[in-house]
């Protein structure tokens, strides 16, 4: 069974992804597109926080706020998650298509190859995704998934 078939089978039957299909690029490489049963982790550069806290988690009094922001509006953060500002409640959106590039554990993948994957997706889809997922397949059939972002992602603060 090829790497592509192994990852596609794992996504479909173990991770319960829907609408999985293989996209073949002109250069012969393949990527798997599918819809996970629930949204995968949001992109790290998106900050979702309680409107009553600053970036360090300290309480902020919003009553002395003189700007014209309407805190009752929902904000759409890059189609990943909607946040109701007035309550801080996260309302997940429906899952979107994710792209998984299968690689073997012993394969070496360069930044040039990753860039080529994003360029191939841009040509095939007429849009460039913000991230892809590498599906790393071990010799025993174990598959581990890693996010690869297009460009720089803001690091998490500990």
UniProtKB/TrEMBL annotation:
Protein name (database record): Sen15 protein
Region described as Disordered: spans on this chain: 54-77
PANTHER family tied to this protein: TRNA-SPLICING ENDONUCLEASE SUBUNIT SEN15 (PTHR28518)
GO cellular component: tRNA-intron endonuclease complex
Tree of life domain: Eukaryota
Start and end residues of each tRNA-splicing endonuclease subunit Sen15 domain: 6-158
Record's keyword annotation contains tRNA processing: yes
Any GO BP annotation: tRNA-type intron splice site recognition and cleavage
Residue spans of biased composition, Low complexity class: 62-77
Alphabetical UniProt keywords: tRNA processing
Family under the similarity heading: Belongs to the SEN15 family.
Molecular-function GO terms, alphabetical: nucleic acid binding; tRNA-intron lyase activity
